[in-house]
Amino acid sequence: MTRPQRDYLVRAADDGLEALDVGPWAVEKYRRLGMYADIFSTGMKNRWDRRVYLDLFSGSGHAVFRHDGMRVLTSPLLALTVPTPFDKYIFCDEVPSRLDCLRRRVERLAPSASVEYVAGDANARVADIERLIPVHARGATVLSFCFVDPFGLDVHFDTVRRLGSDRSMDFLILLALGMDATRNWRTYLTPRSEKVGRFLGDTSWRERWPEAEARGKSPVRFLAEEYAASMQRLGYLTPGLDRMIEVRTRDNNMRLYYLAFFSKSPQGYKFWDEVRKYASPQLGLGL
Length: 287
Prior knowledge:
Helix 1 crosses helix 10 and helix 6 crosses helix 9. It contains 10 helices and 10 strands. By secondary structure, it is of the alpha/beta class. The radius of gyration is 18 Å and the shape is globular. The strands form 2 sheets. Strands 6-5-2-7-8-10-9 form a 7-stranded mixed beta sheet, sandwiched between helices. A 3-stranded mixed beta sheet has the order 1-3-4. The C terminus is likely disordered. It has a single domain, classed as Rossmann fold (3-Layer(aba) Sandwich).
């Protein structure tokens, strides 16, 4: 297919509302998310009756790069402004002020869009999020794309399971393994910590870690592979870490996170490969 010829790093004017402070590596996330949302929504328009976009950690819709002060649109507004919009949007954030800023920006950018807002932790509000997703039926087919962008290992696998197990839903998940797991691994290994078990949806990971460590695997690689295995048990195709996008800092090459894509359809991976091929040389981290 022909790759969209547009830049998914979209500058935004300062509107006086709240914005997230980010490092230059966020370029990878915004550009790739924006491109996939565009390809997905356009490519699936005539194949499904309704296309739904979900953002579980939506934020306020704007971010400012801390090194140069440039302000850009973030995931919810990037998805909202693709050339072929989704039929419905569901935005969730646990910070009320962020969601209020997002609502005000959405009203200015796309006042006619069908948008639902869920205030609170996505893990706690997953039942409410589910109720907002249109019911799939013959003559009213529904395909969803869910972006999950937590600051750490903050999304419970049960949340992903409830949203994706019985639905046609692609996921793009930021696995914040370098930012969280590496720094806190000693704590997570203690018997009292349930963080990794909730993240993977599997408490038996502790039994497999000693062997993985003996083979020289880092906690980051181990957890990425474990997460992919958990998604596979939900019925998602898991082509491996080679199709995840690893993002590192430019100054010291420190691993930050993986952008991990999951779909039950080979078509989803064809779209994702388009993003990976297009983004590799052109989308770099330089600003």
